[in-house]
User: What shape does this take?
Amino acid sequence: MLNHLLGISENASEHGAQIDNLLEFVHWFMLLLFIGWTAFFICTVIRFRKKRNPQANYHGVKTRLATHLEVGVVITEAVLLFGFAFPLWAKQAKKFPSTRDAVQVRAIGQQFGWNFHYPGPDNQFGKGDPDLVTAANPLGLDYDNDPAAKDDIVNYNEMHLPLDKPAIVYISSKDVIHNYDLPNMRISQDAIPGTSVPVWFTPTRVGEFEIVCAQLCGQGHYNMKGLLVIDKAEDFEAWLKEKTAVTQ
Assistant: This one.
């Protein structure tokens, strides 16, 4: 409820519910702290106002209530960090699905858009060569000498994935640092030149969702948006066949 009031986008991934629950708890905790410390501040201003205390008291507060409250806050934050945030991150970062059971896609950022590279029916990504990069071949795939590249699919600014199937996305960049951000999938990862960082998630809703760059990357950063389309399994296969037919 609180997440919705704060304008957080609707979740459309399997793991997103855990993140949303953690966010909801943290926001309620922050609200409780805000109310508590505001009440404490108001009470302090009234109780220790100049009219009531014309002379300074050099002994200060003798109770340990404030110390106990601060310790309680530290313990709660430690529980959130080590009990929830770290395990959730570890699950996403280490427990990757098998590539045989997942859809694999490369997401390569450039000023100012995204290239999405699918391995094709052979499930092998073709090799690229920077010297082969052209407007028609933005990733420099070696179609002439690499058999694995011949059936590869490269789509600009539109990424398709099937419903209820894990997706592994390898994120990189052609020029500067970008950030591959899927708010509805609760995924965000920097795209760094010369590296390929994998992330994974399982879409749970059919529809169209925005892909944004969450890292300032130049004058056109504001317009660096892509489209994520989550299809039913049969629609995704039909889209793949259509794209494969165009490349061959």
User: Anything to note?
Assistant: The first helix runs from residue 2 to 5. Residues 13 and 185 are 5 Å apart (CA to CA).
